[in-house]
Design a protein that fits this description.
Layout (H helix, E strand, L loop, with lengths): L2 H12 L3 H18 L2 H8 L7 H4 L11 H12 L3 H19 L1 H8 L4 H8 L6
InterPro entries: DUF2267 (IPR018727), DUF2267_sf (IPR038282)
Protein name: DUF2267 domain-containing protein
Pfam family, one: DUF2267
């Protein structure tokens, strides 16, 4: 999948413009990178479209522990959208990521996330 196809999926699933979808994608991947280990971030990055890799790579190994609500707040703040749009965006980006990286790699990532976030990623929220 190309970066454009990834962002178009996010735009479709969130019913937003491609500009908003691009911002949601970058913010979600950057926030995800903060929340998971450096090794897991590297594994994800290796399977992502080239243009999206810099958003998921991180210099440190240790994840920053923060809850679901903080994840959504960070994405909303970074993209200047309301929390509901941020939540739909996070769900859409996680779904698109799962489609790109494959089930096993995605499940390895979910194992490092709060249960609420893993549930959002496993739901059909954001998909039409």
């Amino acid at each position: 999948m190309t970066e454009l196809a990834f962002i178009q999926k996010v735009a479709e699933w969130t019913d937003t413009t491609t500009d908003v979808a691009e911002a949601l994608t970058e913010a979600t991947l950057r926030t995800l990178a903060q929340r998971i280990s450096g090794g897991e971030a590297g594994d994800l990055a290796n399977r992502m479209p080239d243009e999206l890799r810099p958003y998921i790579l991180k210099a440190q190994e240790y994840p920053e522990a923060f809850p679901y609500e903080e994840f959504i707040r960070r994405v909303a703040e970074a993209t200047n959208v309301d929390p509901g749009t941020a939540e739909r965006g996070v769900a859409a980006v996680l779904h698109a990521t799962r489609d790109v990286v494959g089930y096993k790699e995605f499940m390895d990532t979910l194992a490092q996330l709060p249960k609420d976030l893993a549930n959002l990623a496993a739901s059909d929220t954001g998909r039409t």
